[in-house]
Amino acid sequence: MSGKPKLHYFNGRGRMEPIRWLLAAAGVEFEESYLEKKEDLTKLQKDGSLLFQQVPMVEIDGMKLVQTRAIANYIATKYNLYGKDLKERALIDMYVEGLFDLNELLMMHVVQPADQKQQHFANMMDKAENRYFPVFEKVLKDHGKDFLVGNQLSRADVQLLEIILMAEEYKPDILAKFPLLQSFKARISNIPTIKKFLQPGSQRKPPTREEDIAKAIKIFRS
Ligand code: IBG
Description:
Elements: E1 6-9, H1 17-25, E2 31-34, H2 38-46, E3 57-60, E4 63-66, H3 68-78, H4 86-108, H5 114-143, H6 155-170, H7 179-189, H8 192-198, H9 210-221
Parallel strand pairs: 1-2
Antiparallel strand pairs: 1-3, 3-4
Helix pairs in contact: 1-3, 1-6, 4-5, 4-6, 6-7
The protein binds gamma-glutamyl[S-(2-iodobenzyl)cysteinyl]glycine (IBG).
Gamma-glutamyl[S-(2-iodobenzyl)cysteinyl]glycine binds next to α9.
């Protein structure tokens, strides 16, 4: 075994992308094994690799971890991206859970039926601009620091940048009203490990296309 974490998922963002971001930000090399067809998932289910018969699954440190949040918690703790004490961790948890909620909206846009797409789009943009982004703009304004929590890089910064970039794919000027998020984006994007992940050819996945979803549905739902 190479010793590198091995990620099991389909070849797309979905629920694995925040894990890819965290590992990349921590400077950890990882391997991926892509599910291409239903049988690839069935094989993992039958050989006992998946605690709840679901992916994402990450092989790391002799474990087969499932549940996105559990995996992210482990990586964030191991690589010191989870604050320095209980109170910092509580703040990070609140920020990250909000970001997971917004991520869910953005991630699910592509699977909306045609007749609901427009309404879904309006709702997710409203939530981004009027519920979530103002919170992070205020956090940065109130403490005047470079990072969201404890003046050092944490998973909250990494996950916020991921979401900002994803939201900009839908609406390029979405940060227009958020000057501190604009400078945050530039600053965090410039951290060497993250800068590398943002270069073409990295393990970062492109926006999910309709055809990727059709393929994923075949693997996960049929
Ligand atoms: N709570 C779990 C987690 O966070 O890890 C949910 C995991 C989950 O929903 N896994 C799906 C699965 O394995 C694949 S991601 N399904 C098979 C089964 O038998 O339940 C599905 C998904 C995609 C894109 I693709 C967006 C959101 C979800």
